[in-house]
Amino acid sequence: MIGPDLVTAVIPTTGRDTLSRAVLTVLQQTYRVSEVLVVADTLANLDLPDDDRIRVIRVGPGAGGNVARQTGVEQARFPIVGLLDDDDEWYEEKIQTQLEAVQSTGDLEGDWIATCRLDTRFSDDTRVVWPDAPIEKTESLPVYLFARKKFRGGHGLIQSSTLLFPRDLAIRVPFDAALPFHQDIGWLMDVYGNNPSTRIVQPWMPLMVFHIAGGSLSRSITVDGSVDWAVKHLGKINNRLVGDFILTQTMNVARQHGSPREAFRVIRLGMSRGRPSGKALVHAAFVTAETSFKLPRSKPRQVGA
User: Fold this and answer.
1) What is the rounded distance in angstroms from the CA atom of residue 38 to the CA atom of residue 53?
2) Average pLDDT value for residue range 99-105
3) Which of 6-10, 80-84, 136-140 has the lowest mean pLDDT?
C-alpha cells in the first residue's frame, strides 16, 4: 500500500504556452501529487491552473534547465521528486504505476530511479513508442544508454520527464548547473558514478507524452562540446561507448545544424576519440548521406501507444 504525501512534481519552464497543459497532467494523477513546483527561468507571467498545490519559484532569467531542476529539488517538501518538462505530459497513472513498480522490486528506501517508455509525438503527427528494449538485469546503465545494438535504433533512452526518484538522491548527487546540454543523461551518469548499483525501475509501458517539434534540439549544443562530454564521462568506462555516443548522439547535432562538413567531422572524431561499433558507423554514414544530399530525414516506424 502506497501512503499519501510522497511526491513533489518539479516543472522547469521558460514560460512556453504548453506549461498549463503540462501542469494539468500532474494535477490529474491517480496517485495524488502533493506539491507542484513550477520553477520559472523567466520573468514573464505564467498561465497556470488554479490549484493550491502549485507553487511558483523564480530563477534566472537565463539560469538554465539544471539550475531550475536542482532549485525545485532543494525546495521540495516531500521525499520523492518527479520531473516534467513544460512541453511534455504525464499519463494520469504515471506516478502510481512507477511507485508500485518500485515497491514490487524492493521498497522506497535507498537509491533508485524510476523511468518508463515514451509516447513520442512528432510535429507531423507521427507517433512512436521509445525505447525499443528495456534495460537488462545484467546491463550497466551506460551500456544501456549509449551502446549501439542495431543499425536503426538499438540503444536505450531515459528522458527527463520520465524520471521519478528520492529527493535525497539529487541532494547528494545534484544536477550539474554548469552543464548547458546533455543534462538528463549527464545526471544519470553522475548518479551511476556515485553508486553503480542504483536500482533502475522501468515499467514497460508508455506513461508520458514526449513532444518533439521540428528543430527541437538546442542550438547551444556544439559538436566539440558534445564530444568533450562523451570523452570525459564515458572514456573512463570504455572507448566503444565514446565512439558509439559520438556517432549517434553527437551526429544528431550535425544533422540538426544541417552541416555535411560537420557530419564528416563527427565521423572522424568518433573514430579518433573512440572505438565505435560497426552499427554506429553505418548509422553515421546514413545520417551523413541525408545531410549531404538534403534527403528527407528517415522517420521512425509509426506505432500506437
Assistant:
1) 10
2) 96
3) 136-140
| 212, containing H or E segment | strand 206-212
Task: Break the chain down into helix, strand, coil percent, rounded to 5.
Answer: 40, 15, 45
Q: Is the dihedral of CA 159, 78, 93, 89 positive or negative?
A: negative
- DSSP tally for the chain: helices H, then strands E: 11, 11
Q: How far apart are the first and last CA of the chain?
A: 28
Q: How far is the C-alpha of 156 from the C-alpha of 135, rounded, in Å?
A: 7
Q: Which residues pair with 164 in a beta bridge?
A: 82, 114
**Segment holding 228, helix H or strand E:** helix 223-234
Measured CA to CA, the distance from residue 248 to residue 218 in angstroms comes to 16
pTM of the predicted structure, to 2 decimals: 0.93
Determine how many CB atoms are found less than 10 A away from the CB of residue 302: 11
Rounded Cα gap, residues 122 and 242, in angstroms: 28
Q: Which residues contact 224 (CB under 8 A, 6 or more apart)?
A: none
Q: Are 6 and 81 in contact (CB under 8 A)?
A: no
Q: What is the DSSP code string of 62-116? A: S--HHHHHHHHHHH--SSEEEE--TT-EE-TTHHHHHHHHHHHTS-SSSSEEE--
Q: How confident is the model at residue 214 (pLDDT cuts 50, 70, 90)?
A: low
Closest CA relative to residue 29, chosen from 78, 85, 99 = 99
Helix, coil or strand: residue 40: strand
Collapse the DSSP code of 257 into the 3-class scheme (helix H, G, I; strand E, B; otherwise coil) and give the result: helix
Instruction: Identify whether the C-beta of residue 83 lies closer than 8 Å to the C-beta of residue 114.
Output: no
Count the neighbouring beta carbons within 10 Å of the beta carbon of residue 106. Answer: 11
